[in-house]
# Entry
Amino acid sequence: MNQLLYSKLSSLFKVEPSLATSIGQIQLDRPVMLASGILGISLDVFNRLYRSGAGAVVTKSLSTEPWEGYPNPTIFSVKGGGWINAVGLSNPGAPNFAKMIEPNQEVPIVVSLVGSIPEDFEMMIQQFENCKVIAYELNLSCPHVAKVGLEVGDDPELVRKIVTIAKNTTDIPIIAKVGLGTTHYLNTVNTAIDSGIDAITAINTVRAMAIDVETQRPILSNKFGGLSGTPIKPIALRCVYEISSKHDIPIIGCGGVSTWEDAVEFFLAGASAIQLGSAVGNDWIDVFSEINNGILQYMKRKNYSSIKDMVGLAKKS
Amino acid sequence: MQRNHNHTTIVTIEKVIDETPTVRTLIFSDDRMSNVLPGQFAMVWIPGVNELPMSVMISKEPGKAAFTVRKHGPASTGLFNVKEGQQIGIRGPYGNSFDLKEGKLLLVGGGTGLVPMMRLLSFVKSTDDVTVLIGAKSKDEVFFEDLANNMLKNNPHKVIVSTDDGSYGEKGFVTDLVEKLVNESNFDGVYACGPEIMMYKTVRSAHSRNMFVQASLERMMKCGVGICGSCCVGEDLVCRDGTVFDGDHLSSNKEFGHFYRNKAGILEKY
# Structure
């Protein structure tokens, strides 16, 4: 059908909008993903989240060996909104986890990986050869575990080696999850893009803490944790806008999304999909369908047929 | 302003009662916790030690609530050792609660699993015919027998204790008694809380005879709000979907009674 005819027909018959989106080579039916670290250790739960409207689920960050994480308290609800957590990247280890998700057929799973040296990532990716996985997300930004996460993301040379080895180990797309550390995150983004990364997730939680005034103690057992939820949304949005203004790279927005308006803001800033986690703690898993429905209504009202119609629009203003 | 249940409230322990050499009840004032439903739980912070999920125990005085804890690991031992006048943090209540049936009821509690059963007893109607089964390893570890009898003094009732070693009450596992009782009578509601194998057998016995049965599950729990995922059983999250589940639902859950997850989230067999 030629373009002129299509546009005439479109004006006569309203096009039903589609929630499908693509993050580079990664195709999703719906743009709202579960962020890493949330509910991420059981294939049965992944299936339930997918049925509830999640476009994809990102696993807990996996390490080469099982990790128990920190003792409780591992989470704190901030007055005014948001959470501070220091779960400590507890996870069953990549080899055990790969066995757990091997039966997966249906759910778009993104495997999140955390490690200290490039070879950790190579070993872990090899574990998932027999699993149906749509992408790997390199956790270069967890703010509360030593020797991994942000400490890795803050070292551009290490980022270069990790991205290179990951890209050489698999043909499945590799995403870098960046956050706010001591190195400017845009330097980490630059390095990851130069090394061949397929997409960027921005951002992770922001290093924070809470002190109880009655007992006069830090509340989290690890003292410091990562702040997530509504307080960090404006920061995350700024980062997505900055990255998309400087680079032509697919972006997944992450940080404080709890409503459809938040999701749309991230699209307008340049994200092709969003991840959420804290909102699950407040609104449980109904939040996925609520946000999907809100995005659809908005698209109908604005006459957009696909998510990509919105991506980056705020940069044109 | 109404209190946000996710925000930690600091309370002071007003009284400590030794129930057995390893079990204590800690009483404190808190209106919200004094009114929780049976099956709901709180996340309890012991400053400098840990935070753990606890069923909320009843207290006779209005406005007061309690936790009954058995010393076991570092967290529960930390709570067990809290003295009168010390402060702890609480958030919640979280979770759902038992559906209250009327008529002939069977309540099965093992160890500190008796706590939600005691709270459930405070909701029974005076016309209900109630049987309470208390399971313990030995005579030293039996508690709440007098309390249960006292709470049911105006009801047709039985409180039966069974000890694994036979040092008090009936000898054997409480689940053997459950099997016998559900064979003899048709209960309108069967409720269980305690070690998972005990609950599994109770649910299986009652459900196979088409009786209404519910169990309050316990799992490794970190956040209590459905974020960390540690308490998943199959596709269910104990903190958000439970703690109370119907027998129908549990009977189709392939992990209940067979597997639990360790601190790293690895499935282990019971």
Remarks:
- Chain B has two domains: 9-94, 104-269.
